[in-house]
From TrEMBL:
The keyword Mitochondrion does not apply. Gene3D superfamilies: 3.30.230.10, GHMP kinase, C-terminal domain (3.30.70.890). The keyword Isomerase does not apply. The gene is mvaK2. This is Phosphomevalonate kinase. One of its GO terms (molecular function) is kinase activity. Keywords: ATP-binding, Cytoplasm, Kinase, Lipid biosynthesis, Lipid metabolism, Magnesium, Nucleotide-binding, Transferase.
Amino acid sequence: MRILASAPGKLVLFGEYAVLEGAPALVLAVDRRARVELDKGKDKDWTLISQPYLEREVHFTLDADNAVRWLDLSKAERSRLRYVQRLIEMLSKEAWFDAASERGSLMLDTRAFHEPGGVKLGLGSSAALTVALMAAAGATRENACQDRPLPQLPSLLSRHRSLQGGRGSGLDVAASLYGGAILYTLESHTQAMPRVIPVALPGSIRLLCLWSGRAASTGEFLTRLQAWREARPEVATWLMGRLEALARDGSCALEAGSPEELLRAMAEYGDGLRALGDASGLDIYSAEHRRLATLARQAGIVYKPSGAGGGDIGVAASNDPERLDYLRRLSESAGFLCLNLQPDSRGCEVRVEETSEGETHGTYITHS
């Protein structure tokens, strides 16, 4: 049995940080996909290819205690595969893999989430990989339903959060599972099952994604933000409340279907992020984001960081394609990389290939 699975990355158009307070976030799946190939075989050991982190094939076994035992991996290579190892061990512990008897090959590919120099772009690669690998592993389970449904969002969220130290909202996981554009809202501060509503952006809005030139750590930002909130609770409450209100304004603009109102909501949310960064000392609007925002103002269009900020991706939005083209030229002249990202209506997809009487038959699994 051979399983092929993939899941898209994400952009956040508004709702960063405030989503953790119960505010809605507008999230868009984009056509950079994590890809997984899982082939059950009779080999003695598991074979792994993990791109772009390794340039060669490596081997491991799964012990009875569900631990990965690398057979030919250096210390530096193990460090690069730390997340992959924890993900495999988690799936083995929960019987998604049969550690005692199963063998096979595993190919993991998240190259689409990196810029040419190998730096992460900040499009949610770990979430997309988690969704794709769990979907691939689940499709092989003997006790799976006949139609082999994809893993459900609560299961994916709990596992991804455990791998991320309990931090984050999980909006990237939802985008990878469902695809398209969604409004994502946590129902409570306990991070219970979120509400996910498929939405459509106004048809005239176009986006331009820009790489700031450096990677950022969302986990580090969340840790520092929490420390600042504990030290300055009154200021933090006011600023977070402002972001919550702006996110709800954005949701109303989306519901109204007005491109002008949505663009104004995105611009105001970007201003709210800048105020949060200035007050907390978080570099949400880094020097690179500030430079891109200046270029966007010169072009007469909206710009904001997408996600935690500090680096990674920024997104410009307009209902005037000529203005976006002008910003593209300005940004490239200033040395920034413009990314050719497109919305991806497809969420996680799995193809199960089974061979019978010399013929290979494939079945597709998608989220319904």
